[in-house]
Task: structure prediction
Amino acid sequence: MEVYLRPTLTAFKAFGPGTEGMTVVDAASGRTFGHKMFLGSIFADTPANRTLSLWLSHAAKNACGHCMLLGETGPNGHGTYFLGYNKPADINTALNVLLPPDCQMPETALCGDSRIRISHAHHMDRAQVVESNHDLASALGCHGISCIAKELSYIDMNNVWVVPIAHAALFGVIKKF
Result:
């Protein structure tokens, strides 16, 4: 995927924050103005989102790229469901080895608990660990550093990936609420 995005990422870097941008001429009025390119969000269905972000597949136990809530296998081994909406659910505490003592993940929590949210810095830390040891991908919930994060230093991994509400929530997370 990275090879296909290279021209776009190169343009964002050449004309984005920290650069002079580009000069654009309004064809109707002849006026010129400065323009900078800024990647604010990526809207994609869940499989494409996971391919670009390098988070685990949406069906993986550690699939949430925004927090460390663990998924549970559904009836008869089919599907992965993320609980924690009406009672505390298990949390992936593997990230605790990278966190300071005052930021440790709890053993259980409700979905949306701020203590289990992964910051951009924590995401980058876990991705760097996985890049040097791919055996930890499953435990830490990602496959490495996204080419988007590598090339565009201004993005925040928590905010650039827009959750496709109809696809992720209505057909996934809460279909068997």
Remarks:
- The two ends are 34 Å apart (CA to CA).
- The chain has a mean pLDDT of 86.
